[in-house]
């Protein structure tokens, strides 16, 4: 990001920051000199993530917690506060996903995803609130297009992420007076990620998805991190309660795909 704001010395906490898009976000902040804490379940993944973050020469720590456990989340946020002090930027992106028809989901299967994505987000935000006292403090929730594009085999994720975006808007109202901005970033399909692997498991499917993106390519973690950093910066000081797609236009729907195919069929495009 050109002329990007500096996050040197800022404290950034990323829930679900041990891999994929969220680790890409943590890494982008670390590269800007932020002190970064990542939280997830697996100690092994956390250690690998911290090793990557430390390459930038700053400070990074990993705390293990399952976001479904409010007490563990409380302990992790308190440990971050003890290590780094108050938090400038909180990113909440822990999530689970698997494709399954509604009738192929047990009650616990549906609950697992809602518990991680939606209730987990609530736990993380609630536990972080006492530490979000710095001027300009902000929260960025990592949502998904399923929040507003109904998708077959994704009843759990659609319900959970729609809830995440509503939590974003409600807490923007409740916490605005305390000076805390709350926004959602909605990644489109991002290359090389676990989410992509689970929903589009073959190279052919991934190619088809890329072709359905108006901008003609899959996203990268850096595409997402750039918007997260914008939202966390003073450049977005008057932005709160926003739900921002970063998806190359993917969630605009099939109309552009149909148009592109028609153009191809009629020779108006390569
Ligand atoms: P990922 O690499 O699997 O990231 C998920 C992260 O959440 C991991 O760090 C995981 O670490 C952590 N996590 C999972 N369950 C947890 C739990 N119960 N408690 C604490 N941490 C937990 O997946 P990704 O594909 O990069 O997705 C990252 C985010 O982007 C998610 O919010 C997803 O919904 C969103 N998104 C992804 C895409 C995409 O194309 N990939 C598109 C739209 C939105 P542990 O296993 O160590 O717990
Ligand atoms: N189809 C249908 N049900 C499934 C399923 C699938 N592909 N995968 C898991 N489930 C069900 C399980 O059978 C279980 O239900 P049950 O107790 O009635 O049998 C329930 O979901 C929970 O599964 P479990 O493996 O016990 O949960 P977990 O807490 O260990 O893991 C998940 C949570 C299932 C979400 C797991 O996929 C995960 O940890 N994901 C994190 C990484 C990820 O999904 N990244 C992409 C983010 S976009």
List the helices and strands and how they pair.
Elements (H helix, E strand, L loop, with lengths): L10 E5 L4 H12 L3 E6 L2 H12 L5 E5 L5 H15 L4 E4 L14 H22 L9 E5 L12 H21 L5 E7 L6 H6 L3 H9 L9 H12 L10 E4 L8 H11 L5
Parallel strand pairs: 1-2, 1-4, 2-3, 4-5, 5-6, 6-7
This protein binds NADP nicotinamide-adenine-dinucleotide phosphate and coenzyme A.
How is this structure best described in words?
There is one protein chain. This protein is an alpha/beta fold. The protein has a single domain (11-189, 218-248), classed as 3-Layer(aba) Sandwich (Rossmann fold), CATH 3.40.50. It contains nine helices and seven strands. The protein has helices at residues 20-31, 43-54, 70-84, 107-128, 155-175, 194-199, 203-211, 221-232, 255-265; strands at 11-15, 35-40, 60-64, 89-92, 138-142, 181-187, 243-246. It has a seven-stranded parallel sheet, sandwiched between helices. Strand 1, helix 1 and strand 2 (35-40) form a beta-alpha-beta unit. Helix 4 packs parallel to helix 5. The radius of gyration is 19 Å and the shape is globular. The two termini are 31 Å apart. The model has no long low-confidence stretch (mean pLDDT 94). It binds NADP nicotinamide-adenine-dinucleotide phosphate and coenzyme A.
